[in-house]
Structures are given as C-alpha cells and as structure tokens.
Amino acid sequence: MGFGRNLNRRQFLAQAGLLTAGALLPTRFALAQMQKIRIGLMLPYTGTYAQLGVAITNGFKLAVAERGGKLAGREIEYFTVDDESEPAKAPENTNKLVQRDRVDVLVGTVHSGVQMGMVKIAKEAGTLMIIPNAGLDAATGALCAPNIFRTSFSNWQPSYPMGKVLADRGVKNVVTLAWKYGAGEEATAGFSEGFIKAGGKSVRGLWVPFPNVEFQALLTEIASIKPDAVFVFFAGGGAAKFIKDYAAAGLRKQIPLFGSGFLTDGVLDAVDDAAQGIETTLHYGDGLDTKRDRDFRSAYSKAYKSDPDVYAVQGYDAALLLAVGVNAAKGDITKKKEMIAAMENAKIDSPRGTWTMSKAHNPIQDIYLRKVVGRENKVIGVAHKALADPARGCKM
Ligand code: BEZ
After folding, report:
1. Which of 16, 259, 357, 383 could hold 369 in an S-S bridge, CB 3.0 to 4.6 Å?
2. Is the CB of 183 under 6 A from ligand 1?
3. How far apart are CA 111 and CA 129, in angstroms?
4. Cβ(127)–Cβ(100) under 8 Å?
5. What CA–CA distance (Å, rounded) separates 58 from 54?
6. How confident is the model over 104-134, as pLDDT tens digits?
7. Which of the listed residues 43, 52, 111 should we mutate to test ligand 1's pocket, taking the one with most ligand atoms within 8 A of CB?
8. Is the CB of residue 150 less than 8 Å from the CB of residue 318?
9. 148-150 vs 173-179, strand pairing mode
C-alpha cells in the first residue's frame, strides 16, 4: 500500500492521527524495560528447613518492597519452587525455573546438597544465581563461577573461629556431632581446623544422617566419652530438637555445648529454657545496636509480625546485591558484564554490618561470638573480624 505521493510512512500515520506523540515508537530497550524481571526462588518450604526458606523469602521481598516493588524501574515477578531440601530432586527443580519459567535470576537455596545440583545447572546455563544460605564450600571454591554469588557464608566460615575461642579457653578434647552431609562435614572440618591450629588436642566426630533427629544413642556415647566440650552443626527444626534432648539428657551442666550459630538462630521460642547460656559463632546476632539493624528489624516485624533471624538477613541482602547489579545495568539485565562487575565491587550496607565480596563471590564479614540470654542470641564479642573464606580451588 502506498502512503501518498509526498508522504513517508510516519508523516502518513501522523496525518491520519495514528501517531500521536511524535516518534515515540518504543525501542527494543524500552520494550525490555517494560517487562518484569523474572526471579526464581528455589527454597525449602516443607521439612526441617521450611522455616529458613520462609525467612529468606520474607527478607528478599522486604528489600524489594522498600524499593517500591521495583529494581531500576522494573517490576519483579516471582516464580517459586519448594526444593524440600532433597538433593535428588535438585536438577529437576532447578530446571523448572531455568527452562520452564525462563527466570532471569535464580535465588536459592538452603541445603548444601541441593545447592550442588543448582550450581551445576546455573554454570551450564549461565543464569545469574544468588545463594542466600547454603554454605557449600565448593560454590565459592572449586566450582566458583562469574555468575554465582553468595550473600550468606561458606560452611567453613562461621565454624572456624569457634575453634580458636575454645582452644584459648584451655579446652583440649572436643566431640563434634553433625548431620552427615556436606554442611555438617564442612562445618565440623572448619571448626577442627581452627581448634587444632590454635592449640586444641583432639577432635572426635560423631554423625547422624540428615534429617534424622534420633539423638539418644549419640548423647549416651558423648556422656561416656566425657569430652571437655561438644561442638555441633544442626539448624532449623532439628536444632530445636537437639537442644531440648541435650538438656533432657542432663548433659548441659556436665559438658558445655557450642556450635555455629545455626544451632540457636530462629529456634529460641521453641526450646524454652533449654538453650540458656549456649555460645555460638555467626555473622549476625541480637543487640548489634546499630541504626541499620534497628530499622531492618522494625520493618521486618511490622511486615511479618515476627522477629527476623540470620536467614531473613541473608535473603534481604540477596535483594540488596541484586539491586546493585540491576542499577548498574540501568535495568537492562542482558548487560551481564556490567551487572557482575558492580556486584563484585558491592559494599553491602547490611543489618549484620557492612560487608564486601571476596574474589570468589563470598561475603568478607565479621563473625560474632554470641550467647543465648533469654530469647536472644546476644552478641558478646567479635570472634573474627572481616573473615574471608579461603576459597580453596577457585580459579577465577
Ligand atoms: C547448608 O546445608 O549449607 C546449611 C543448612 C542450614 C543452615 C546452614 C547451612
């Protein structure tokens, strides 16, 4: 069809009243800007880690809500998968988000075994992934990759400083007890490394399959070994059960119990007095007494009618980190290089305290010494300032 003798297509449309605001035909960039950023949340919403998945989700969504529900002007669309903390289902569940839902960013997960499956797929597909909990050392170690970031910790990181804390107190012989899977193995190895390096004598490891909570036989064994101290890795519902069983077995007054802070975070309401006095090391705690933390805690409590814990902070920080990347790319998330560069150089103003990103994409952060007092994991000191994971095997 012709447009008339002296009129081109635009002049013709304008004359016909079909082109109103001049040349405002949207460019490809503008069209992309109108699309929502697709975020895949792969987390446990059932099982022993369900509460952790909910807290991470709440924290992430709170940070986005504080930015008006948008990042760099782009709305967010969430796609959610319950990974059940089941490593065997990890490839299928990750692909639901990557292939079926075509998410732009993967956020997950909690369980190190599930994380292993996610890392492999994210590396192959090149999908940007932010890990808001799972400590799997290899994720920012031997399997590190430009598109994989973590806002939580490596399993080594919060446990290693407790080794020195105990050795400095003259503790010589320790029994460790943990769920027998990646997180338990790496957390107790981190503790042992710090303990022996600082002068500790011996560490004997006891194990229970994940997510088993039948602790009786192991508690009897600990009573007969009579170590100077016990160091454990448990989290979520299993941690609450362990704390109660340890007290009920009468061991609390005989053999002091320590752990990485997952033992007591988010479980104090469920254990009554059984946790009083337990000391742990972690990158968050109660009573930090900074304006940043107070503001976060009051916003979280207002939004969710519950107190935040370390998992909520890690989810919140995952959104803060993503915001840094999306802002640097001015909302154009196809600009992966710009996003990654900005995220690598991010300085996150977190409720836990400001932290930066290591070369392997894991937080460099303070590890606090905490003690359970009432219903709080009260910060009583800094066990290790600005601790970076050794990132063994990372070639990036
Ligand atoms: C993990 O599997 O990496 C993990 C789970 C819960 C708390 C901390 C670490």
Report:
1. 383
2. yes
3. 15
4. no
5. 6
6. 999 999 999 999 999 999 999 999 999 999 9
7. 111
8. no
9. unpaired
